[in-house]
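Batch manifest, entry 17 of 40.
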Amino acid sequence: MNTVVPMDWHNHHDAGVTFAENRIERLTTFPDYEAEIVAYDTRFEEMLGGLIPETIAVIEDLHAKGVPMYALTNMPTEKAEMVFSKSPVFGYFKDIIVSGVEKLIKPDPAIYDLTLRRLGLQASDIFFTDDNADNIRVAASQGFVTHLFDTPATLRPALMAVGLL
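Output type: structure tokens
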């Protein structure tokens, strides 16, 4: 994985390069791994983790309370619809900004700027949680209220601390 389909290769998907385009160089460089390289696309759904019940409960509670929710996700355009079909809670988001569509990925500051323009909000009015410390660092540097999602158990208390729950 680290050699044939490393994360920096996958990041191109998140930045809007199609799976078909992105695999051309890999197939040329690693022809013996054609099945595995193609499987990164065709079996992508199998790589997804399951839904996190504690997080789903938090989203449902925020929705019930009328808290407007938005998502900013690094995700390939080609896989977004499939991912969002996994749970009805994705329908609770007023907007979902998908990196593959925007051709910008976190932690590039430009995607946070785009998010603020699109939502018409100030960074200080947004509670931003992410499981990647670099994404949190950049969001915090731009004034977002941030929370590193390191475990589901810490999300609800963090939201309570800022008065959202």
